[in-house]
UniProtKB/TrEMBL annotation:
Belongs to the RMD5/GID2 family. Residues 256-297 form the RING-Gid-type domain. One of its GO terms (cellular component) is GID complex. Residues 65-112 form the CTLH domain. This is GID complex catalytic subunit 2. The keyword Zinc applies. GO terms for biological process: proteasome-mediated ubiquitin-dependent protein catabolic process. It comes from Sclerotinia sclerotiorum (strain ATCC 18683 / 1980 / Ss-1). The keyword NADP does not apply. A zinc finger (RING-Gid-type) spans 256-297.
């Protein structure tokens, strides 16, 4: 995933082929009976799952998706907005559903780029460039954004009055593109990855950073466990909370109000007919004779009436 996300498609393909050959050969690293032997064996036992996931990602066209992303980013770096705008138009409903401003920001930058004229943008000096070109572009593409961005559109159109003295006008900053291109590249990458259900950051970078943040707490935990001569017996969750920054939180966390346990795929949150939510295991414990009473209200219902919910 990391290699695909970083655009290293050739390396990713080679890595996949070599790992597949490694699996087919049935070879595994030798163990020496040290403390981590069981963990190591467990890791290599799960190689098939990892390879299966990787193959599934390839079959679903992730590589093709990222190739599209990098091709569009290359065009943006060449000051060509058209491929990015076409992609945003194609995915307009999904972007709008996320509350994204990307499509408007791309069209806004295209308007500004045309407005600055051939001396700045290097495009042909004709009716599609400069002030006439920007005005024509605004008439065609801005109406669809009036409901959400009317004020910004009004400012862009009003700025045309100051064309001859833009540097000393109130709209100088609006037409300053020194950071606009890098900003729109970052926004495009973020929205593109979001529509794929992925973080805009490299998965390997996120994993390494989260591990570095958690390491001091885990080292302290290890020393306490050693001192108390106890063992960490919970395999599915950490025994202590690791405080990660908000940028590394990609899904909501629900704690069952009855058991005080965090829900998981094996123990998902279930909503009762009354609207209250508990973990699935708590729901089964509450059930008596096929019926149960909500712990927060007088309503009674059956387990089959509860529905799993997704945040």
């Amino acid at each position: 995933m990391h290699l695909l996300r970083e655009g290293q498609f050739g390396v990713a393909s080679t890595f996949f082929e070599e790992t597949q050959n490694f699996q087919e050969s049935g070879s595994s690293p030798e163990t020496n009976g040290d403390l981590f032997t069981s963990q190591r064996d467990e890791i290599f036992a799960s190689d098939g799952d990892v390879l299966g996931d990787f193959a599934a990602e390839e079959s679903q066209g992730l590589q093709g998706q990222f190739e599209t992303m990098y091709n569009i980013l290359h065009q943006l770096k060449q000051r060509n907005l058209r491929p990015a705008i076409e992609w945003a138009q194609k995915n307009s409903k999904e972007l709008e559903g996320r509350g994204s401003n990307l499509e408007f920001e791309l069209n806004k930058l295209q308007f500004v780029w045309l407005f600055l004229g051939p001396n700045v943008n290097g495009l042909p000096d004709d009716e599609n460039n400069g002030l006439p070109g920007a005005l024509r572009y605004a008439r065609i593409y801005f109406p669809q954004f009036q409901s959400r961005f009317l004020r910004e559109i009004q400012q862009l159109i009003t700025a045309m009055v100051f064309e001859s003295n833009l540097q000393n006008s109130p709209y100088q900053q609006t037409f300053n593109t020194s950071t606009s291109w890098s900003d729109v590249c970052n926004s495009f990458t973020r929205e593109f990855c979001s529509l794929l259900g992925l973080s805009a950051e490299s998965p390997l970078y996120l994993a390494a950073t989260a591990g570095a943040i958690a390491l001091p707490t885990l080292i302290k935990l290890a020393s306490i466990v050693k001192e108390k001569r106890t063992e960490w017996t919970t395999a599915t969750e950490l025994p202590v909370e690791i405080a990660l920054p908000r940028s590394m939180m990609f899904h909501p966390i629900f704690v069952c109000p009855v058991s005080k346990e965090q829900t998981s795929e094996m123990n998902p949150p279930m909503m009762m007919p009354c609207g209250h939510v508990v973990a699935k295991e708590s729901l089964h414990r509450l059930s008596k004779g096929g019926r149960f009473k909500c712990p927060y209200c007088p309503n009674e219902s059956q387990p089959k009436d509860a529905r799993q919910i997704y945040f």
